[in-house]
Amino acid sequence: MRLYYLKRHRAVVSGRAEVDLVGSTDWGPGCVISAFTKVKISGRFVMGRRVQIGTGCFIGAGGAGLTLGDDVLVSPNCTILTSNYRFDRIGIPLQEQGTESKGVRIGHRVWLGANSVVLDGAEIGDDCIVSAGSIVSGSIPPRSIVQGNPAKVIFTRR
Asked: What pLDDT shows up at residue 43?
């Protein structure tokens, strides 16, 4: 698996990372996936150039897919999910109701702080910073610094 991603995408995947081996990926050169990170791919997974994914992250690229722009930094222990259980029918177990996916788009030069969570349907604009421990579930305008649960804009970069 490591050799496949190195040869196909010129990406470095740690021998201690768990990355699904699928053809629905499109990665730019210089990507790095660190140790103890799990990447589950059942939909489209696009990474720009020089994306770095830190240690201990979980990424679920399913359904509508995940797109990461160039020079994205994903700090340790972050979670990115691109699908969600349906929950509209009471009395039926969630796992029997199926899932839905809106996808996630993360722009260029974004920094996700440690332990951040990005949920299905999120869209993060270019040049954003997501503070450590924040939960992003909606749309974040470009050049924003966000913090909290749910993540709210606390500053706009100039």
From this structure: 92
